[in-house]
């Protein structure tokens, strides 16, 4: 076992973990952060995307011990303490940027990172920025609209 110390969604945590435990497993199984979804276990789908030290990472591709000393934000950590949705979460809701919801946490986490780097992305930049996150339901049209809405570049929810 290896001792890790990190901050998850603003809370300090310390745990003993197996050196081979993935960050996604740690978040879900040890901390109950089930919003971080296990989609493929191969880093292809992006459903498990979280922020590690302010950057999006696929948590199925990071060992928990690699996050030691770091700061992790999950989809649960985006909402305000009062339960208010993060603007990107709100944009996905308003623009129907989800269907089954399985990819949504990863898409939202990747979008937050994308908009931090480029607050006014073009449609092409949005599609490129989300290309590591797969959705099997929506065809991406409403996801792109949601990102544009969060960036303030469209009218948003109007169909």
Automatic annotation (TrEMBL):
GO terms for molecular function: 2 iron, 2 sulfur cluster binding; metal ion binding; oxidoreductase activity. It holds the Pfam family Fer2. Gene3D superfamilies: 3.10.20.30, [2Fe-2S]-binding domain. Keywords: 2Fe-2S, Iron, Iron-sulfur, Metal-binding, Oxidoreductase. Residues 2-78 form the 2Fe-2S ferredoxin-type domain. It comes from the Bacteria. Pathway: Alkaloid degradation; nicotine degradation. This is (2Fe-2S)-binding protein. It comes from Nocardioides albidus. The lineage of its organism: Bacteria, Bacillati, Actinomycetota, Actinomycetes, Propionibacteriales.
């Amino acid at each position: 076992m290896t001792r890790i110390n990190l901050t998850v969604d603003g809370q300090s945590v310390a745990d003993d973990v197996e050196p081979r435990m993935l960050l996604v497993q740690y978040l879900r199984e040890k901390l109950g952060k089930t919003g971080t979804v296990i989609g493929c276990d191969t880093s292809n789908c992006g459903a498990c995307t979280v922020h590690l030290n302010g950057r999006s990472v696929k948590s199925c591709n990071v060992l928990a011990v690699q996050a030691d000393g770091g700061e992790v934000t999950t989809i649960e950590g985006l909402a305000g303490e009062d339960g208010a949705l993060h603007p990107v979460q709100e944009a996905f809701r308003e623009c129907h940027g989800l269907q089954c919801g399985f990819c949504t946490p990863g898409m939202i986490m990747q979008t937050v990172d994308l908009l931090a780097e480029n607050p006014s992305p073009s449609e092409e930049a949005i599609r490129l920025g989300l290309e590591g996150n797969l959705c099997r339901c929506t065809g991406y049209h409403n996801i792109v609209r949601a990102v544009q809405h969060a960036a303030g570049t469209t009218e948003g929810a109007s169909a």
